[in-house]
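Protocol step 4 of 6: structure prediction from sequence.
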Amino acid sequence: MAYRGVRIFLAGALLTVSACSFTENTLWPSLTGESPTADEKQAAAPAATAPQRARADTPARQQASPSGQPVIVAKNPPPLGTSTFKPNGVTPGQATGTFVGQKVVDMRGELKRLQKSISTHNSQLQALRGKIVANSQRYHGTIAAVNARLQVGTTPGNPILVQQFNSAQADLDRIAADITDMNALANRVSNNSTMSSYLSESARASFAVSGAVDEDHRQLAILEDEVNRTDVLISRLLKEVSNDVRRQTNYVATERANLNLVSTAIRSGEIFGGSLANKALASATAGRNINIAARPSDTSGKRPLVVIRFDRNKVPYQQALYHAVSRVLERRPAAVFDLVAVAPSSGGAARVALNSNKSRRHAEEVLRALIEMGLPPARVAVSAKTLTSAKSNEVHVYLR
């Protein structure tokens, strides 16, 4: 495809889309949204050879389709715990008729109820794990089907892909609901831990109560050991449930960002890569911090990263914009951007005001597109200006 109206610059490297046509020189590629003719496609094909080779040399953080486009790949879900938590039971004892003996009987009954609760929670945990695995498998299967269709190209807003997207979103919502249930389970296990601590303290304190016989202390020692083992089991159960909740919560948050990008890809009929937020986060975890821009900066004299000319309706800039910002974030995960709405300054005050309003609306549209691609809104500062050199409404994207 050839795109007129979008210009992309990268410091030290030129980023283009396959089959782009060049107008002025190789440093200023012009991308247009008009459908090229067969002759234009053939003439543009040689110009795309070098950029395509450049893409093959980039780090393999994305899977590539046969067409050279990156594929939106659902991240594999983090592993769930595999342990089971089954109490060993409570040793029976004989009543001695003393006050301490009666306390031992009461505590033994409390420990039995506590262990029964642990067994119930263990069963609930295993059932929730099974549901999460089943929902994850359905989700990944659906996303794979969507990717396979987008990989070979499709019509914008393909209703089949929309239906598959809704199905995948429902599966992810089910996983989120399962995580909520697992978090509630963690709270119930925490209550068991409180009860276990109480029984342990009560057993220790009972040794100091007068009027006990030797059999009372023997049974107390056995009970104290079983309470301590139960307390360890509860601690292990709580730790594993908490780890499952933390990992799965992070996974669902990541996949929601990727789903937003899948939605954008389905609307345009073109495949994108992973969420821009995930790209920046993955690079930042290598040891680089992310700084957030608070307000627009002065862009005078700076070369824009992307220039989008809105000289007609429905300028298809999304793919080129995504690749430009994606390449920047791969190298500079802390990057922030200035989004500038540019209007022509010619034509009188009324015409300038009209064009300024239109350019601001176009800037809002580009900002929404970046957010849908996964770029956090706080990483983009928006401003407006007029230029005498502008022939139509434009949106400039600058690297801070």
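Step 5 (inspection) to follow. Residues 99-268 form one domain.
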